Amino acid sequence: MKTGGITKRWILNTLTVIILMLVIVDVSASLALKDYYYAMAESTIDSKVQKSAVQTFFKNYVDSTDYMFEEGARDFVENFGYSYLMDVWVVDGSGNLIVTSAGFSVSDSADMPDYTAALTSESGTEIWTGRNSNGEKIMAKSLAITNTDGSVAGVVRLIVSLEDLDTQHIMFTLLIVILSLAALSMVAVSGAYFIRSIVRPVGQINETAKLIAQGDFNARVDHSGNNDEISELCETVNYMSEEIARADAVKNDFISTVSHELRTPLTAIKGWAETIRDIGGTDAELTEKGIDVIISESDRLYSLVEDLLDFSKMQSGRMVKRAEPIDLIKELDSAVNVFNDRAKREGITIVYSRPDISAPMSADKNLMKQVFANILDNAFKYNSQGGRVAVFAELTNDDKVFISIADTGCGISKEDLPHITEKFYKANVSVRGSGIGLAVVDEIISLHNGTIDFASTPGRGTVVSITLPIDKGGE
Topology of domain 229-315, per CATH? Predict the structure, then answer.
């Protein structure tokens, strides 16, 4: 089995696309989750402390001495009720830290980009996310406190730690990744099972097809009973193998039959030709008999060759009708008359019933003669002395002519009947013939837009029914 076949294409096409989609979804979800957490932190700050409230609190401490502003800052921090959620710093207008809710001293080099931005911001507020001097991830929001003249007296800085939020974000991201990997695993397992359910039967079909191509017509695909397209394909391959085996057997029978059909008259012709040569014209009666046999067997060979040529035309699509106005009843009369002499020789009775009016139609005269000759020949070949052949013709009310030829011969089995118009098929191999006459007849009838049907009972005979359209306006 090829390693670069369906499985590889599925991995490269389907699985790669799924992995790419999962990566995109996971990254997008992780970023969205991070934005949500940080937005929640900012919302927490905004919901607890508003700039207007801070400005109102410090209105009694602005426009006064630095000492009074520091007193106000300490009072603000001592009365700040959300120290469990965030730290609060108060910084003067010069950037000097006055007091913190944590009570710890802070390095003068503390990074406060939000403070700097708030001093010049039109709104007097600014938010910043980054790391403090201790490496802790924080979100800080600065609220400027202004004097009555609009100058900045100081800044209240609210700080929220993002460490717990980042930890939650990482945990949820890992959970998303684990769920994605689990989903990918399930897709991979189910996909692998599905691909295997296709690849294995296809591999079996491939191996079976190779065996059939090598002439092993008994090769079959062993498949499960799943009701799907693969199972149907396996059944089709098995059916194809059976049909090829049957066709091969029919072909071999045909070759054997044709070989026998050719050998028999050739043997007779050769034998009688040698006999005539040996007697040198001394026995006129024997010479005449030999010439009659040679002529008869030559006609038999000619008929066989004609069948083969007609079959070749049929197979290559070169059988065409050369249509001309004819009277089909008249052509049937001619065919029946030809077989009257044969009926007398073989002790078979011909019963012929026909309408008194003509059946005009546009048809190939020679092909229609061939149809009647082939069917009547079969009726005699599969009959026996004392038998009967009934030929019946009538014009129907729907501008058609119906012709039936019934014999009292050996008949055709129910199993063989559906196959008698197939090429090379012979229901009775003991009777001479190429096995292609009825295939040619069926093709000729189709060329003339007609139908042919067969009914038969083993031991009682066969009825061949032909229906052809006629031209009523041509009467």
Answer: Helix Hairpins (1.10.287)
Count the helices and strands in the chain (H runs, E runs): 11, 12
pLDDT, tens digit (0-9, with 9 covering 90-100), for 364-421: 888 898 899 889 988 998 888 999 999 999 998 888 999 999 999 888 888 888 888 8
Give the CATH class of 60-161: alpha beta
Instruction: Give the amino acid at 68.
Output: M
Q: Are 389 and 383 in contact (CB under 8 A)?
A: yes
Q: What predicted TM-score, i.e. pTM, was given to this entire model?
A: 0.48
Pick the CATH number of 321-474 from 1.10.10.10, 3.90.180.10, 3.40.50.300, 3.30.565.10: 3.30.565.10
* Digit-coded pLDDT (tens) for 189-207: 887 777 777 777 788 888 8
Long-range contacts, 132-136 (Cβ 8 Å, 24+): 132/159, 133/107, 133/109, 136/161, 136/163
- CA–CA distance, 384 with 176 (Å, rounded to integer): 89
> HSE on the CB side for 288, CA within 13 Å?
3
Strands in 162-251 per DSSP E = none
Domain assignments of the chain as residue spans, ordered by start: 1-48+163-209, 60-161, 229-315, 321-474
Please answer whether residues 279 and 287 qualify as being in contact, where contact means their C-beta atoms are separated by less than 8 angstroms. Answer: yes
Please tell me the distance from the alpha carbon of residue 210 to that of residue 213, in angstroms, as a whole number: 5
